[in-house]
Amino acid sequence: MKLALATAIAACDLDGDLEPLQAACVAAGIDAQVLAWDDPTVSWARFDAVLLRSTWDYMDRLPEFLAWCDRVQSVSRLWNPPEVVRWNTDKRYLGDLAARGLPVIESHFLAPGDDPASLPDLDEFVVKPTVGAGSRDAQRYQRSEREAAIAHARRLLDAGRHVLVQPYLHAVDEHGETALLFFEGRFSHAIRKAPLLRRGEGPTRALFKEEHIQPREPSDAEHALAAAVLASLPFETLAYARVDLLPSPTGPQLLELELTEPSLFLPYGEGSAACFAQALAHRLGRAG
Q: Is residue 73 within 8 Å of residue 82, measured between CB atoms?
């Protein structure tokens, strides 16, 4: 069984999941090779499947990345599949999930051509592009900084990007963010991520903002919400998923649903790499 672990040329040395996952795949009987999606010399048809991993530069060239996903699917199997990737790489999917009655953080969207001065009137809030990852081009603002926030939104809109505005939930400053990891629809492990956006700090220009991670045991409410989010999806069971939640006075709320290239934080979940590799082996066996 041959499996490609797809990274990016710019990210292959930054993904802490690749080494343990590749080793676990080999132990599970899978010939797993780490290759960059943007390496034009790779023949993806040589593989039984291609697993999206750290393709973290796609937001700068999304049409090119989506076209690559379609090409891979035409000669192999892409996990997760192109229709999932196409829906999930734009955070406007949060509006879809909110419409299904899920507790999503209040989200306001602006499209190119909209007036950036129409930002919602919030005490403290976050402005970010709808296509982005790793907190790139995301910034936290207070009401007194509204003009700077409008300028930020205008820069994104003028570049042809859609904008997402959300209230800043202050409980994250104490409790952090909880990310729950699922393989083949089954819960694997969870981590706590320290707050990323600090007052007065500009957006990062790196591939992703430095993160401070610890293992975490999710609450019953967090487990229930993550399960409800996955159950609401119109897709078949996915190879992997990450559900990112923030605390609020009314209970956990969905920040993001990561179905494309999430960090899986395998070093923080004992046995998680082996479990994921076994799940991939079973999936490859079924596909074959």
A: yes
CA atoms within 13 A on the CB side of 160: 4
Query: pTM (2 decimals)?
Result: 0.93
C-beta separation of 268 from 214 below 8 A: yes
pLDDT at 199: 56
CB atoms within 10 A of CB 63: 8
pLDDT tier for residue 258 given thresholds of 50, 70 and 90: very high
Give yes or no for a contact between 239 and 79, defined as CB atoms under 8 angstroms apart: yes
Alpha-carbon distance of 163 to 29, in angstroms, equals 44
Tell me which residue has tokens 């007036």. 115
Name the nearest CA neighbour of 89 among 133, 34, 39: 133
How many beta carbons lie within 10 A of that of residue 213, not counting itself?
Answer: 16
Percent of the chain whose pLDDT exceeds 70: 94
Contacts with 105 (C-beta within 8 Å, 6 or more apart), sequence order: 94, 166, 167, 169, 246, 248, 253, 254, 255
Q: Is the pLDDT of residue 208 over 60?
A: no
The distance from CA 127 to its chain's CA centroid, rounded to whole angstroms, is 17
**DSSP per-residue codes, 243-261:** EEEE--TTS-EEEEEE-SS
Please classify residue 108 by burial: count the beta carbons closer than 10 Å to its beta carbon, then call 0-12 exposed, 13-18 middle and 19+ buried.
middle
Q: In whole angstroms, give the CA distance from residue 147 to residue 188.
A: 43
Cα–Cα nearest to 82, from 69, 96, 92, 97? 69
Q: What are residue 255's phi and psi, to 5 degrees?
A: -90, -50
Write down the mean pLDDT value for the chain.
94
What is the distance between the terminal CA atoms of the chain, rounded to a whole angstrom?
Answer: 9
